[in-house]
Amino acid sequence: xxxxxxxxxxxxxxxxxxxxxxxxxxxxxxxxxxxxxxxxxxxxxxxxxxxxxxxxxxxxxxxxxxxxxxxxxxxxxxxxxxxxxxxxxxxxxxxxxxxxxxxxxxxxxxxxxxxxxxxxxxxxxxxxxxxxxxxxxxxxxxxxxxxxxxxxxxxxxxxxxxxxxxxxxxxxxxxxxxxxxxxxxxxxxxxxxxxxxxxxxxxxxxxxxxxxxxxxxxxxxxxxxxxxxxxxxxxxxxxxxxxxxxxxxxxxxxxxxxxxxxxxxxxxxxxxxxxxxxxxxxxxxxxxxxxxxxxxxxxxxxxxxxxxxxxxxxxxxxxxxxxxxxxxxxxxxxxxxxxxxxxxxxxxxxxxxxxxxxxxxxxxxxxxxxxxxxxxxxxxxxx
Length: 383
Description:
Elements: E1 5-6, E2 19-20, E3 54-62, E4 66-74, E5 86-95, H1 102-108, E6 110-111, E7 115-119, H2 123-137, E8 152-156, H3 171-180, E9 198-199, E10 202-203, E11 205-212, E12 221-229, H4 243-246, E13 259-266, H5 272-288, E14 298-305, H6 329-349, E15 353-354, E16 360-361, H7 366-375
Parallel strand pairs: 7-8, 13-14
Antiparallel strand pairs: 1-2, 3-4, 4-7, 5-6, 5-14, 9-10, 11-12, 12-13, 15-16
């Protein structure tokens, strides 16, 4: 669980409460002895292990009603490199959700600008705010054209803990998330776009993880970031065990109506069709935690590669590098493993949260989880 200090003191009428993030997380899934497969993580065990990738959050917590925010993933950071597109692809496992800009990603195989995550009712505001941000930073030429004219903004619904119809996310919150974007460790759980999210009946939100391939497999880095707001308690699997069947406190029934957004980034030289193959493999990582992509769930995944920096060059023929398809199995495994771990990290970081309408969502109990893992011989030691 990553603690954070809410400034502005949660005063009524305060414009927002910003999360001040520590440099390193206090407890993550591996610290609790959760076993994970498919390779070794990078330095931060985060999507920011992919060179150049930055993540920023703006967290809004105010009174009882406001539990929401914005998270941005910048494939090439927020410096001048932000204007350089990447190869990318999208996969929808179940489409009861929204990701703006998706048609152009499919058509062009290009990801441009930030990938923003927020709540369902804030998608339009954040989309417009990205255009405004780009126009201020890089004023359009005489043609009126500017960068990031088809922004990528994805959502999950936080109306259990947040007054989602209060429309609390504003343009300045996107700008703040962009300004906070940085490499290094990434805050998880109830931060940014994940502030009001619920996962398998526990507090969910933002989670991240990474894998670094051995030198003999190319030495590439792959990272995943999720906004986890999906699943029913009985479905939850951790370490291959039906943990959700044992942890019954605060358990709710009913159909699944949540969603998950998964962002996969890598420095491996992959073309758009190969990145779509990666995005599809994220579904297998989701399944390893018990996800089934119910009818009411928006499970939309996006993948990008930071290799091939000349993908948008228009004045000459472009030479690109491509990893042979026969060498992609380790990348597939890394995607599955990092996705599973990112989701569990989101759960581990979630704290019991009180929110809109007096509702409370419990955080995953760390001690009980360890007991279950140990009882079944699944507790990883020395991790």
